[in-house]
Structures are given as C-alpha cells and as structure tokens.
Amino acid sequence: MITPPDRTPLPRDFFDRPVLEVAPDLLGRLVVRTTPDGPIALRLTEVEAYDGPNDPGSHAYRGRTPRNDVMFGPPGHVYVYFTYGMWHCMNLVCGPEGTASGVLLRAGEIVEGAELTRKRRLSARNDKELAKGPARLATALDVDRSLDGTDACTTGDTPIRVLTGTPVPPEQVRSGPRTGVAGDGGAHPWRFWVADDPTVSPYRAHVPRRRPR
C-alpha cells in the first residue's frame, strides 16, 4: 500500500536551521501554488543551498541590498529574483533571522495541476520537463517578483505553501557542485537531488560570459 504524501504545512522552525540541513531535507516536500485557475502542487527533486556571507556564490555575500532584503529573514519566506533579463527563480529563506541563507528550488515533479502548468510551459516535450530547472520551475508555478517576501508558513491565506510531503530517505539523496556557480563557491557540493529522478536538471559548470569586443 502506497502512503499518500503528508499535506501538513511545514512549521517555521523547519526553516530556522542551518541551510545545509534544510536543503537536503526539502527533497520530497510539496510546494503548493494557489492560482486563480486552481492549485498547482510540485514535489521537490533538486535544490541548491546558498550560505549568505559565508558563500561567494550567494546574492547576500556582500551584504544587504534592496534586491536581497528578503534573504535576511524571517525564515520560511519566499525569495524571488529576476535573472538574465528574462527569468525568475524561487528560493526559500532559512536559518535564524539576519543570516541571509536560502535554498534555490531547482527542479520538481508536478503532481497536481499539470493541465495549468502545460499552458505556461509550451516548450516542454513531456510532463517530466515542466519544472526541470529553476527558471522552468518558477514559470510552471507562475512565480514572479510579485511573490517576493511571501510567507510560506503562515496559517492564513497565502499563494505559496510548503507541505510535509514524503521526505526522501538519506540513501536516495545525492550531492555535488552547484550549477553555473563561478569562483571560490563553484566547487561547494551544495546541490542536492533525488537519485535517478527524471525531473532533475542536468549539471552544467560555470561558463564565463564573453563580452563583445
């Protein structure tokens, strides 16, 4: 008998821990996005940890700015950033308030509301590709900067909630370098994913962007 995923919301103290504890523990959890057309639920299969001032790859490495303000807490909030002038990416803030650590949601399996997601991800060749990559995940869940700062742990109405789901056993969790991170933080094995899951995005090392001559 297959036990259905636990749909109990994760409490704030789940996120009020070191980022390297929270990140692998998010695998198998459910992210539920409430939209005017109906709910979309995603099972997390790949994440990356970013450790604020201790991490050259983090947006908060050089301190607090208007862009990264949400990263400084409280934990359990959504941090959304815009990148390359075209894509949004979604993170979950963790650690004690003021620490500016967070987990990038890199990939997942759409387990509810796939018909809504397909309308946003017309280039996906199949449902396994609907949220295969951080920008695709945000697009699939209709996440943009308007949701930056959303409290995913509130007991009231919220457009995004993180539920207990079915945690992944430690023996099924893999780790390796983060995708596309350059410099001193490039080698940190802070990307975590579910072994052999078809929704996990391919690893890509950082490639310096060439400036026109």
UniProtKB/TrEMBL annotation:
It is an enzyme of class 3 (hydrolase). Coiled coil: none annotated. SUPFAM superfamilies: FMT C-terminal domain-like. Its EC number is 3.2.2.-. Transmembrane segments: none annotated. InterPro entries: Formyl_transferase-like_C_sf (IPR011034), MPG (IPR003180), MPG_sf (IPR036995). GO terms for molecular function: alkylbase DNA N-glycosylase activity; DNA binding. Pfam families: Pur_DNA_glyco (PF02245). One of its GO terms (biological process) is base-excision repair. Signal peptide: none annotated. Keywords: DNA damage, DNA repair, Glycosidase, Hydrolase. Belongs to the DNA glycosylase MPG family. HAMAP family: 3MGH. This is Putative 3-methyladenine DNA glycosylase. It comes from Streptomyces griseoluteus.
